[in-house]
UniProtKB/TrEMBL annotation:
Protein name: Ribulose-phosphate 3-epimerase
GO biological process: pentose catabolic process; pentose-phosphate shunt
Positions of a divalent metal cation binding: H34, D36, H67, D176
Active site location: D36, D176
InterPro entries linked: Aldolase_TIM, Ribul_P_3_epim, Ribul_P_3_epim-like, RibuloseP-bd_barrel
Catalysed transformations (reactions): D-ribulose 5-phosphate = D-xylulose 5-phosphate
Lineage, broadest ranks: Bacteria, Pseudomonadati, Pseudomonadota, Alphaproteobacteria, Acetobacterales
Organism: Falsiroseomonas bella
Keyword Isomerase assigned: yes
E.C. numbers: 5.1.3.1
One CC-aspect GO term: cytoplasm
Amino acid sequence: DRKIRIAPSLLAADFARLGEEVRAIEAAGADWLHLDIMDGHFVPNISFGPGLVKALRKHCALPFDVHLMIAPVDPYLAAFAEAGADLISLHPEAGPHLHRSLQTIRALGKKAGVVLNPATPVAAVEPVLDLCDLVLVMSVNPGFGGQSFIRSQLAKIAALRAMIDRSGREIALQVDGGVTAETARDCVAAGADVLVAGTAVFGAREYGAAIRALRAGPAG
Ligand code: DX5
Ligand code: ZN
């Protein structure tokens, strides 16, 4: 059985109490902390930058999973690596040379991920799979928390699961957007092994119970 990891998205946390929030989700059993970086240009919303990532680093021992939604992305890779990212993911549309960007992340000593928007095909990641530690399937259009899960992305998750298994490499398959206890089951059944959830965790009264419900998987 594949181990399922839960990565709460800080975007849905109380921004006035972020230190407490990251300590709370760590205590509640989260596996990674998902940090959504938005520039108001690549996506129609602005979130936070490397200064905040750095400030949170001393409040949380979880791996920092940094999802960059900024363009151009290359000038900021080093800043997020230095701020304490463990894994840096980017969209193929965010720069002219995806392969080079992934090489840069690896050269900074960090894990690298490629993010596929709902309209971006699986083929976009295939030629660079050897540089990927993670592939992220967006199950909403990026920019905002609290949107509805786009079910057509389940087939993409299944296709990527087959591609990753064929490669024989250890590559995490992550899903982000509209993940709830219900849609989590479908994602895991399709082959995902890292679930990002903003509203489903930070919108819940009890973070631990919310994380356990997401982890329950297809049988749950
Ligand atoms: C959307 C972000 C997501 C978002 C998920 O652009 O990448 O990580 O925070 O939020 P929910 O889980 O509420 O859909
Ligand atoms: Zn995200």
